[in-house]
What does this fold into?
Amino acid sequence: MNSTPRDTIYASQHDKVDGFSFDKRVVSVFPDMISRSVPGYVTAIAMLPSLADLYLQRDTQVYDLGCSLGASTLAVAQVASSRNCNIVGIDNSAAMLEKCQQLVDQSGFASAIELRCGDLVNASYENASMAIMNYTLQFVAVEQRLELLKGLQKALLPGGVLILSEKITFPDPQINQDMINLHQAFKRENGYSELEISQKRAALENILIPEQYSAHQERLQQAGFSRVEVICQTLNFCTMLAIK
Ligand code: GEK
It folds into this structure.
């Protein structure tokens, strides 16, 4: 699936499962972890060059919020640099950004990419035609989500877009449970054991807070986005396109 070290963080029994954090251990296995854990992740990243081609406006900025190791940043880097755009990647994990900077330096696009370590909730945004927030809003406190989206909407130029990928829940309890089961089956098929699946679930409890699509749609509209649509969904993971 990919050539990075295999994620075995939860493979052995932990006496106590600590809350999940994006530390050095996670960084070292992150590409393997996210692609084996998030259905649709590979597709969500693969769509980005075409989305950038469609929406990125010359001489503007692209924000990659919760950039981790820069998968989204690097996916749009070629289109961005051909349109004289800067990419600003923001993440509050210093360990992630340190490794991300190494990958950016090897990419050939370093001059177009700036990495900032900090909380994306307190960051300031301007002159953007594209903001990408792939699987990161789910880690922001629910009560801070609207203000963050309002700030991004304000920073976008007319016609600018937000690409938002999230884990979601479903209003129907049976469908919701089925999706949880299917997500676990996806992880099992990708080699995770029952122990790994249950310890990871415990680690993410109260840290990753998913919401229903309808909550995202309403909030995006409340933040001022004029059009909101799902452009990709695999089980309980969904990518939304919001146009200013
Ligand atoms: C990808 N987008 O590969 N401020 C800044 N960064 C944050 C915050 C915050 N408040 N909260 C979490 N993060 C990436 C994957 S991972 C998703 C994104 C996952 C950062 C956190 O440090 C981590 O790097 C990232 O958001 C979420 O397309 O691991 O499920």
In short: The chain has nine helices and eight strands. The pocket of GEK is lined by residues 22, 34, 66-68, 71-72, 90-93, 96, 119-121, 134-136, 139-140 (CB under 6 Å).
